[in-house]
Amino acid sequence: MSYPRTRTGIVAVDLNLVRVFVAIYETRSLTTTAARLYVTQPAVSQALGRLRRELDDPLFERAGRQMQPTPLAESVFPGFRESITRIDRTLDAVRGFDPSDSHKLFRLALSELGEIGWLPAILRAVRRRAPHLRIEVVPLDIAQLSEWLARGVVDLAITPAGLPGAFDHVPLKSQAYGAAMSAQHPLAVGDLDLDAYLAAAHVSVASDSGAAMLESAQRRAGAIVSPQVAVRHFATLPPLLAASRELIATVPDTIAAGWATTWPLVVRPLPFAMPPVELCLYRRATTQQTAALDWLFATVSQAVRGSSGQFFVIHGDALAETEHA
Predict the structure, then answer these.
(1) Both ends of the chain: CA-CA distance in Å?
(2) Element (H, E) at 174
(3) For residues 192 and 187, what is the distance between their CA atoms, to the nearest angstrom?
(4) How far apart are CA 258 and CA 255, in angstroms?
(5) Whole-model pTM?
(6) Running DSSP on this structure, what letter comes out for residue 297?
């Protein structure tokens, strides 16, 4: 790396100060930095003061509730971060990470369907090796996810590919979409052409992480869909569709097909081209707990890839099928 310089020449920087600098840069918060490094906030402020004197630069300036980096801080961060990462990985190789003895807390961002379908498999895989490790599920927010991963607000996230930012990720699943509706819907039989699709009463789901890809495919087909009904959760859809001969919902087709085994629903192919949504597992870009995050990243990836999902838990019963037959 290139060492920072001041007017008096090269500065030899204490490694602990570098670690504090990297944490402040990533979190933009002295309070969060203190919690991450298990020190007091005054200790973080003192370390930042020392680093400011040694580098002859304010490094961070308060803007509202955040600490914004100066141009010098922007320029030295990549080298500082790379150095800390290499040192931590070297130490991890010596000390290792023992999942069986870990009580760490990790945050996983999941969509509603991800939580329903994959969380049971994830928890089984994690607790098999790490019975004391703690998992907190955070509702997926696509608009904020890049910032969350950049600052370490969440550790892992499962979301469609194409997330802005240079985050390590691996592909997990490929998911096509279809049109789900009541078996009594007029469009449940015969051809579902684009005109009939557009004329139908649509219901949308706010928690659909693939909504942007669906809207792009509809626009390419010249289809403008204005939903008559908007709901917050996928779990609302099966009973809502089963009770209506008017509504249709464009949703992941394999999941809807699972619902159709216990609800009086059918799933029709879409009357326009839509590439499958590629779901990926992303990991945060911050530097703390590298070995533990490596283990969790691999464990969650294997668990989801090996799971068909438990989306069938949103099921109907004999009474529902009898009432709507």
Answers:
(1) 70
(2) strand 169-175
(3) 6
(4) 5
(5) 0.73
(6) H
Residue 37's pLDDT band (cuts 50, 70, 90): confident
Q: Determine contact, residues 212/142, Cβ cutoff 8 Å.
A: yes
From CA 185, how far away is CA 265, in angstroms rounded? 9
Radius of gyration for the chain, computed over Cα atoms and rounded to the nearest angstrom: 25
CATH code 1.10.10.10 region(s) in the chain: 5-95
Domain 102-172+277-313: CATH architecture, name and number where available = 3-Layer(aba) Sandwich (3.40)
Instruction: Answer for the pair 262, 318: CB distance below 8 angstroms, yes or no.
Output: no
Alpha helices by DSSP H, listed for 38-187, are: 41-55, 71-95, 112-129, 142-151
pLDDT attached to residue 321: 42
For the beta carbon of residue 127, count every other beta carbon within 10 angstroms.
13
Looking at residue 78, its pLDDT comes to: 85
CB 110 within 8 A of CB 137: yes
- State the Cα–Cα distance between residues 283 and 208, nearest whole angstrom: 21
Most distant pair of Cα atoms in the chain: their distance: 85
- What residues have CB less than 8 Å from 86, skipping those under 6 apart? none
Instruction: Tell me the pLDDT tens digit for each residue of 310-319.
Output: 565 555 553 3
**If you classify domain 5-95 with CATH, what class do you get?**
mainly alpha
CATH topology of domain 177-275: D-Maltodextrin-Binding Protein; domain 2 (3.40.190)
**For 77-113, what is each residue's pLDDT tens digit?**
888 888 887 887 777 666 778 899 988 889 999 998 8
CATH 3.40.190.10 domain residues, the chain? 102-172+277-313, 177-275
Q: Write the DSSP string, 198-250.
A: HHSEEEEETT-TTHHHHHHHHHHTT-----SEEES-GGGHHHHHHT-SSEEEE
Q: Are 132 and 103 in contact (CB under 8 A)?
A: yes
Instruction: Please give the Cα distance from 51 to 73 (Å, whole number).
Output: 11
